[in-house]
Amino acid sequence: MDQAIHPRLTVLIHPLVQHKLTIMRRRETSTGEFRSLAREVSLLMAYELTRDLPIERVPIDTPLEPMMAPSIAGKKLCIVSILRAGDGIASGMLDLMPSARVGHMGLYRDPATKRPVEYYLKLPEDVAERLVIVVDPMLATGHSAAAALARLKKAGCHNLRFACLLAVPEGLSVLAAEHPDVPVYACAVDRMLDDHAYIRPGLGDAGDRLFGTK
Ligand code: URA
């Protein structure tokens, strides 16, 4: 049903992911526990996000004999974290893909236009040649995610994916309209966005919960 909102949506329906996400949602979960769980869930997300990476056969010697063994072809990955909560996802993904490059993008919401404005951008020089995974734990209005993807396309990126913990139909619709070519990965699609742009039932402010700032 959520694929009707975004045709390239993958929801990670896996018992480990769903169980960990439930603990993250709980009000009483501590900052430390939330952060470790974000790392673990991100690692599991990275497993799914990279499922179709191209493989080549390379010659190796096992202790017993030579063989042609599978190896990832190219290995050109970049994780782009939307500051600041994206960092909580990027660090888990890096556990699984330690040689991936990491870019950062900072966006704030213009109080007048309510639109995202870029205040920080640092990308690897060869980002356009990489598979770029944009990470932000919460796909809420979708405006930051859409702006980030537009900026990366402007930088020449053409192989993009977006990963979040929670999405809502509102944010998915925005991405489907503005970036229908970009696959989206989420651990759950929640009910709605409230009047303060919080995801319901959600998990609260992901940045505050990751960094203990509230
Ligand atoms: N960002 C958050 O951190 N939480 C929400 O619920 C929505 C956006």
UniProtKB/TrEMBL annotation:
Allosterically activated by GTP. Pathway: Pyrimidine metabolism; UMP biosynthesis via salvage pathway; UMP from uracil: step 1/1. 5-phospho-alpha-D-ribose 1-diphosphate binds at residues 84, 109, 136-144, 205. Pfam families: UPRTase (PF14681). Binds 1 Mg(2+) ion per subunit. The magnesium is bound as Mg-PRPP. GO terms for molecular function: uracil phosphoribosyltransferase activity. Its EC number is 2.4.2.9. It comes from the Bacteria. Its cofactor is Mg(2+). Keywords: Allosteric enzyme, Glycosyltransferase, GTP-binding, Magnesium, Nucleotide-binding, Transferase. The keyword Cytoplasm does not apply. It catalyses: UMP + diphosphate = 5-phospho-alpha-D-ribose 1-diphosphate + uracil. Residues 12-213 form the Phosphoribosyltransferase domain. InterPro entries: PRTase-like, PRTase_dom, Upp_B, UPRT, UPRTase/APRTase. Uracil binds at residues 199, 204-206. The keyword Magnesium applies. It is an enzyme of class 2 (transferase). PANTHER family: ADENINE PHOSPHORIBOSYLTRANSFERASE, URACIL PHOSPHORIBOSYLTRANSFERASE, CHLOROPLASTIC. Belongs to the UPRTase family. Catalyzes the conversion of uracil and 5-phospho-alpha-D-ribose 1-diphosphate (PRPP) to UMP and diphosphate. This is Uracil phosphoribosyltransferase. It comes from Pararoseomonas baculiformis. The gene is upp.
